Amino acid sequence: MPDHRKLGRELGLFDTDPLIGAGLPYWLPDGALIRHSLEEYVRGLERRAGYQHVNSPVLGKRELYEISGHWAHYRDDMYPPMDVGGEQLVLRPSLCPHHALIYRSRGHSYRELPLRIAEIGGMYRSELSGVLGGLSRVRAIQLNDAHIFCTLDQVEAEAAAALALIRQAYDALGISVARYRLSLPGDGEKYVAGDWDRAAAILRSVLGDLPYDAVEGEAAFYGPKIDVQIVDSAGRESTLSTVQVDFHQPEQFGLEYVGADAAKHRPVMVHRSIIGSVERAVAQLIEVHGGAFPAWLAPVQLRLLPVSAAELPYARSILERCADLRAEIASEGSLGARIRDGRLAPFQAVIGPQEVAAGQLSVRLRDGSRVDPQPVEDALASILEAVRPPWPRPASRMPEPGSPVPPSR
């Protein structure tokens, strides 16, 4: 498995600059295409699962994080407050306080629950320089985050559905699970008081007979969580996806809904992230696929290779018909060198005099095999179908840790 830090730079996906700062990578055009395709896929996956998308600011008043508990229990990982207009503003370390306020901004009935809100939003962690590296450990994070506000008797089903979404996404992305971890509280003042046993019991039930490790001292400060662990090229394990049960923040923010008995009740908050941070997810994808991304994620999906300058106008006319494909023309250098340079593209089409005369395309696949020449419209339609994002199949059981994942299209 290649190191994403080296390969990502070689492929022109991302880079860093000391004037921007350590742990603050920037995305180059091809890397941005992969990132945006991944974000679009996740949003579509969430929409199909009944999530509503929101946007919230990356800043919040210090008081917000005092109420949520982040200031007391997570301050060492936060950036210091900024004095602005007589207020202290903080770069947010998490999206959950903002989503709690979004829920609180309107009254809710039990008929609306579960209410699922999602966001791919920026957050910031004051990581030590010694642990920063590539995309896998950064200071500015785009997190695929969501919060489900539900009744107590809905919590287990919602957490299980979140794990099913993680399984679907991992199948589509070609990511394997290293192991499942039930992260529980440890000793000390790192954790808030609360109904930890009930929250942990819910997550144990969700895990069912899946093999997992229960680890103390790895819980969020407000509740236990299921961590879906992955392994990088150096054999280092990290968390990519999580599901968490939180009784604390609904209490802190005074969240309510009106029940069937017309009385006010406290919802439970389920935190879940399908792919975790976009940065870490892309780092894993670079390493898993070695740059040969699934067709729907590839920054260039179709390369048109005119044999000579005479075929260039025909190639340009085809490119104009590729509005829904990420296509490019490669015309410089020998044909063999161009084919080798484009070996990571899922589709390449060599265009010679015969193709021009017949109005056809001769498509070469990533594995070196070739498709019989087809009329241009038929060839482009087939390619377009092959690069569609793999939308969810009916939910099924998650793969066992370390089990192979079926290849994506």
Protein model, in words:
Helix 10 links the parallel strand 16 and strand 17. The chain is built from 13 helices and 20 strands. 31% of the residues lie in helices and 24% in strands. It folds into two domains: 286 residues, BirA Bifunctional Protein, domain 2; 85 residues, Anticodon-binding domain (Rossmann fold). By secondary structure, it is an alpha+beta fold. The two termini are 20 Å apart. The strands form five sheets. It has an eight-stranded mixed β-sheet, with helices on both faces. A five-stranded mixed β-sheet has the order 17-16-18-19-20, sandwiched between helices. The longest helix has 20 residues. The C terminus is likely disordered. Helix 1 crosses helix 9. It comes from Amycolatopsis iheyensis.
Q: In a nutshell, what does this entry contain?
A:
With 409 residues, the chain is of the alpha+beta class. It contains 13 helices and 20 strands.
Main pleated-sheet profile: 8 strands, mixed
Major sheet: order of its strands?
Answer: 3-7-8-15-12-11-9-10
Low-confidence stretches: 394-409
How many individual domains? Answer: 2
Based on CA atoms alone, the radius of gyration comes out at: 24 Å
**Subunit organisation of the chains:** single chain
